[in-house]
Specification:
Largest sheet: 6 strands, mixed
Shape: elongated
Number of helices: 22
Distance between the termini: 109 Å
CATH class of one domain: Alpha Beta
CATH architecture of one domain: 3-Layer(aba) Sandwich
Structural class: alpha/beta
CATH topology of one domain: Rossmann fold
Strand order of the largest sheet: 6-7-8-4-9-12
Radius of gyration: 32 Å
CATH superfamily of one domain: P-loop containing nucleotide triphosphate hydrolases
């Protein structure tokens, strides 16, 4: 009796230790969530997995960012700053939303309402995050692989497997009467053993997605019971439709044989029994067939959980140290207003304001003065306004637009394309968009800087006039002051400038109205210690070319 009591005490202490460690671990996770609120997530992001849902989900209601614009605005760095999600599901969903700006104000206002709810209801938010954190394992990324068009293609011969299993059952039932049939049983058993371990390769590819889908369904059930402002009917319906998956998937043994010798023997016997009757094989194919018919339900629960996590992420972003505002959308074409808009990835970024008045904008200025950063600032805020209803500015007022850019172009050595040819193709795609029936915001940096001055200025003028037609709004930066004269009737002029203080070049990064008057490139060469004869000759040639250039103001 004493031994039994001692044994029960040990078991109770063991179970108590497990429960204590579990509560301690959950408490630690909750503390981490609390401390990370409003902060940038410092983690390595594996974008090859984060992008999986985006590559599979072809749905969008307005447009999708081009690869060119994604590169131009340093989208991946921007995402890393904006991303405050708790789960991998939310991370994939947020990435997809950011690449697909909308013009549906109802969608944006709903996102705003949901984010505001979590901002004001801390206890509910933290309770929801405790559920979401269960889906923060890297394996959760693989749920989206179940949305592929051809998840798995069954070999033609698998239709004979049921007959195989039937033969095994018949041989076993008859073996007490005819023991010699056990010898014949070796034939299908050998075949089934090979099929069983062949199928291990198939199930291994679903080793990550099946358990995480099971967890996603459970999380959906928890979240639909919470008092949060999300439409849950479709998610509840889809969760119920996936219960059959939950009831069957555990038959598959994705684990490795481990533990003591007795455990290993038991697991091995289990494997042999499953192999003999092809239990794992039948279950696997059954689940695959089932999931092929339930991809819409998988997507429903994925998007429900993802949208909740995204709303919490937006709330955290808005409650952080970096100033944000909610945008205002207007119907007036070619009119856009920014007040103290800034680039979120630049520390102590200078805010700039601008208001267009039915005209596009041409910006002049020297290198490093802020032209390109300002173009990126405009693009980023326009994209975030129409995806997460949040901007980095004091005020943002604009119509719904599609954002296209040509800011960063490189030589493509693999395809044998020069810098100029690469830019030609990019600008051509923008020209095509300019003729379609929607409003565009075009952002171009130094048009055709890969070619000679005369042809660059001539081509740039013709293209910028063409893009400015209809309701399109163009922001373009240039070193070519000559363009200001050629485009003065179509574009309003702004510039960035620098000053010299005690022979040091100082940039204020403030946008100013008008055309840049001063030219400091040769002055910078002089301050950098270039030989005097180079500076003198450069100044002389500059004066001569200025006199000969018909576009330059005297």
């Amino acid at each position: 009796m004493e031994y039994a009591f001692f044994a029960l005490t040990i078991i109770a202490l063991f179970i108590g230790g497990i429960l204590y460690n579990s509560r301690k671990s959950k408490k630690k996770k909750l503390e981490k969530l609390k401390n990370s609120w409003g902060q940038v997530k410092m983690e390595d992001r594996r974008f090859e997995f984060i992008e999986l849902y985006n590559k599979l989900n072809k749905d969008y209601d307005f447009y999708q960012l081009s690869e060119q614009t994604i590169g131009d605005i340093d989208f991946y760095e921007l995402f890393s700053f904006v991303d405050r999600t708790t789960s991998k599901i939310g991370q994939q969903f947020l990435f997809d939303m950011l690449t697909k700006p909308t013009k549906n104000i109802q969608i944006l206002e709903e996102i705003d309402k949901q984010a505001d709810f979590f901002l004001k209801n801390k206890d509910v938010r933290e309770d929801v995050q405790k559920s979401l954190i269960e889906l923060n394992d890297v394996d959760s990324y693989y749920i989206t692989t179940l949305l592929q068009e051809n998840v798995f293609v069954n070999p033609q011969w698998t239709k004979w497997l049921y007959l195989d299993s039937l033969i095994v059952v018949i041989l076993l039932l008859l073996s007490p009467v005819y023991p010699f049939l056990l010898l014949w049983l070796l034939v299908p058993f050998t075949i089934n053993l090979m099929i069983h371990f062949w199928n291990k390769n198939n199930t291994f590819s679903f080793f990550k997605s099946f358990p995480q889908l099971n967890l996603l369904i459970d999380t959906t059930d928890i979240l639909t019971s919470r008092p949060i402002p999300f439409v849950k009917e479709n998610a509840e319906k889809s969760s119920r439709a996936l219960k059959k998956f939950q009831n069957n998937y555990k038959v598959l043994n994705f684990g490795q044989v481990s533990g003591d010798e007795i455990t290993q023997v038991l697991l091995l016997l289990t494997e042999l029994i499953k192999a003999l009757f092809l239990l794992e094989v039948h279950t696997f194919f059954k689940l695959i067939r089932f999931l092929k018919t339930k991809q819409n339900d998988i997507k429903q629960v994925f998007e429900y959980v993802g949208s909740i996590d995204m709303a919490i992420s937006i709330a955290s972003l808005r409650d952080g140290a970096v100033k944000t505002c909610t945008p205002e959308f207007i119907c007036s074409p070619k009119n856009i207003l920014f007040s103290e808009a800034f680039h979120p990835l630049i520390e102590k970024s200078v805010g700039n304001s601008i208001a267009t008045n039915s005209k596009s904008i041409l910006i002049t200025g020297s290198n490093m003065s802020g032209k390109t950063t300002f173009l990126r600032t405009i693009a980023i805020n326009a994209i975030l306004a129409q995806s997460i209803y949040t901007c980095f500015a004091e005020k943002y007022v604009a119509p719904f637009v599609r954002v296209y850019s040509s800011i960063r172009a490189d030589d493509n050595l693999i395809n044998g394309e020069s810098y100029y040819l690469n830019e030609v193709q990019t600008v051509k795609s923008i020209i095509v968009e300019s003729n379609l029936n929607h409003q565009n915001l075009f952002l171009l940096d130094e048009v055709f800087k890969g070619t000679n001055t005369i042809e660059r200025i001539s081509s740039a003028k013709a293209i910028l006039s063409y893009l400015n037609r209809n309701e399109n709004l163009v922001f373009v930066s240039t070193h070519d002051i000559e363009l200001a004269t050629l485009l003065e009737k179509e574009y309003d002029m702004y510039h960035f400038s620098e000053t010299f203080i005690e022979n040091q070049l100082v940039f204020d990064y403030i946008l100013k109205p008008g055309v840049l008057k001063n030219r400091n490139a040769i002055r910078i060469l002089e301050l950098s210690g270039y030989p005097k004869e180079i500076i003198e000759e450069a100044n002389n040639l500059s004066r001569q070319m200025t006199f000969l250039n018909p576009f330059t103001e005297q």
